[in-house]
């Protein structure tokens, strides 16, 4: 049957332009025959839809040319992994996995490491290799920054290595739904037993969704006690640190805080460059340096956006039968990031002044009072982290030299490495800026100030109530 696939590929190669064949057809995998259908695995949902929409008739023609009356069925590669589980072809024992299926894509090898995520990566790697400083980790980051990727990488790694312990992967919503179902069906003890007995690792995603669910929180706290006492690995993910989750019982909060709380920051320029290169390679294309640089300059937050930009570029280039040029990339970026505000140092200075209640004049003055000099250091740190300004240019903004900026950044990094109110304050400001960097939503009527009719941004509103 490999011959059949070879024959189909040959026909498709003749029918399609070389670039389209390389981008869309080459990554497909022949999975065998099922009844009267040829099963073909696509690397992702986007590729599946694209192929069905654009190339299905060509596939049928290519099959006909093999003198066979067969149809074709496309699957996403992850679905085929599931089929493989049934046929016992997986390199691990599927009975070890409870809860959600892990994505085969989310591995340590696929994760690009940079300054923004090095600590999270190293902590998860140590956890997977059973050599952790603490068996509990709380990964905390904004959307699309790699929390699920890293937590599932731990699970995938443990699953692929010999062992008997079970791996349970759930979101907070799954946990709540299972608990409610168990209670309704009078199978509460069974539920508890399943989560405790024989479990090697619990991966619990989006724990901020436990907010306000009192009974679920109590039950989870008891399960965690059991797992902590038994020295099991527990990986939590959330969009904010435990101390900022509202309506969370103190007992659960303290259990979340029991391990290493590690933040994943938005990718810096160099990491973005590396991610773009890696994702393009995965799509089988080599981007020009100027295109990579342009994408890295313009896609700063969510890594999902980087992924979708690359898939979009490949699709456009294939559809228009044009190479991927800078102007094609510019067109695409204009479309996918139409309303991203341009972050200026003014926004950062304004934010810091409002938050610490200092004036702009103070921030740029030579005054050395503790409150002012600390606010100035924070502003310098944020400018360095969220803008592309040089150290010298940042120094100039505050009437200081570049050595003072270096000192400020070092000092703030030191504070960020220690738990405590200062760390939380800085992290809060970082989140405000990340939120500001997200594409703006259409203005909601409620956000218009009644007295002036002026629009008030989310950030401004929150700062006013601080
Ligand atoms: N450092 C990285 N290297 C390679 N790919 C990455 C990296 N970080 C994130 N990604 C990719 O970005 C996408 C989003 O990542 P992920 O699902 O882990 O985000 P998340 O933080 O869990 O977001 P959310 O809170 O929205 O669920 C995934 O396809 C993932 O593979």
Task: Give an overview in words.
This protein is of the alpha/beta class and 466 residues long. The chain has four domains: 2-85, DnaA, N-terminal domain (GMP Synthetase, Chain A, domain 3); 94-263, P-loop containing nucleotide triphosphate hydrolases (Rossmann fold); 269-336, Orthogonal Bundle (Helicase, Ruva Protein, domain 3), CATH 1.10.8.60; 345-464, DnaA protein, C-terminal DNA-binding domain (Chromosomal Replication Initiator Protein Dnaa, Chain: A, Orthogonal Bundle), CATH 1.10.1750. It contains 21 helices and nine strands. Strands 4-6-7-8-5-9 form a six-stranded parallel sheet, sandwiched between helices. A three-stranded mixed sheet has the order 1-2-3. α9 (214-229) links the parallel β7 and β8 (233-238). α1 packs across α3, α11 (269-282) packs across α13 and α12 (289-298) packs parallel to α14. The radius of gyration is 26 Å and the shape is flat. Adenosine-5'-triphosphate is lined by residues 110-112, 117, 141, 143-149, 239, 275, 303-304, 307.
């Amino acid at each position: 049957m490999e011959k059949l696939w070879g024959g189909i590929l040959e026909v498709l190669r003749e029918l399609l332009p070389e670039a389209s064949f390389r981008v869309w057809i080459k990554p497909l995998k022949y999975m065998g025959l099922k009844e009267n259908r040829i099963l073909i695995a696509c690397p992702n949902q986007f590729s599946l839809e694209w192929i069905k929409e654009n190339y299905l008739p060509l596939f049928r023609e290519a099959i006909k040319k093999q003198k066979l009356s067969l149809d074709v069925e496309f699957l996403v590669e992850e679905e085929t992994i599931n089929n493989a589980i049934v046929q016992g072809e997986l390199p691990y024992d599927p009975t070890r996995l409870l809860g959600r299926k892990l994505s085969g894509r989310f591995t340590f090898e696929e994760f690009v490491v940079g300054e923004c995520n090095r600590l999270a990566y190293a902590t998860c790697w140590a956890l997977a290799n059973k050599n952790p400083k603490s068996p509990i980790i709380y990964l905390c980051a904004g959307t699309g920054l790699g929390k699920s990727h890293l937590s599932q990488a731990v699970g995938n790694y443990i699953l692929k290595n010999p062992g008997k312990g079970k791996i349970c992967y759930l979101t907070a919503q799954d946990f709540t739904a299972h608990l409610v179902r168990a209670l309704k069906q009078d199978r509460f003890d069974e539920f508890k037993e399943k989560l405790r007995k024989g479990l090697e690792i619990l991966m619990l995603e989006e724990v901020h969704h436990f907010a306000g669910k009192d009974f679920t929180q109590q039950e989870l706290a008891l399960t965690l006690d059991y797992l902590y006492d038994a020295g099991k690995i527990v990986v939590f993910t959330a969009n904010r640190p435990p101390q900022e989750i509202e309506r969370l019982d103190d007992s659960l909060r303290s259990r979340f805080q029991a391990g290493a709380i590690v933040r994943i920051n938005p990718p810096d320029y160099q990491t973005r460059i590396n991610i773009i290169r890696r994702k393009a390679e995965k799509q089988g294309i080599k981007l020009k340096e100027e295109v990579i640089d342009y994408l890295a300059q313009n896609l700063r937050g969510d890594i999902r956006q980087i992924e979708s930009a690359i898939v979009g570029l490949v699709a456009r280039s294939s559809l228009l039968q044009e190479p991927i040029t800078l102007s094609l990339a510019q067109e695409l970026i204009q479309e996918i990031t139409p309303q991203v505000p341009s972050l200026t140092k003014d926004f950062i200075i304004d934010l810091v002044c409002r938050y610490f209640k200092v004036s702009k004049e103070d921030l740029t003055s030579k005054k050395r009072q503790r409150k002012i000099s600390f606010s100035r250091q924070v502003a310098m740190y944020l400018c360095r982290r969220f803008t592309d300004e040089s150290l010298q240019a940042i120094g100039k903004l505050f009437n200081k030299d570049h050595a003072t900026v270096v000192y400020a950044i070092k000092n703030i990094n030191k504070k960020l490495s220690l738990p405590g109110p200062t760390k939380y304050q800085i992290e809060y400001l970082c989140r405000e800026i990340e939120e500001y960097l997200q594409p703006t939503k259409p203005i909601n009527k409620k956000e218009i100030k009644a007295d002036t009719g002026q629009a008030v941004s989310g950030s401004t509103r929150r700062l006013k109530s601080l």
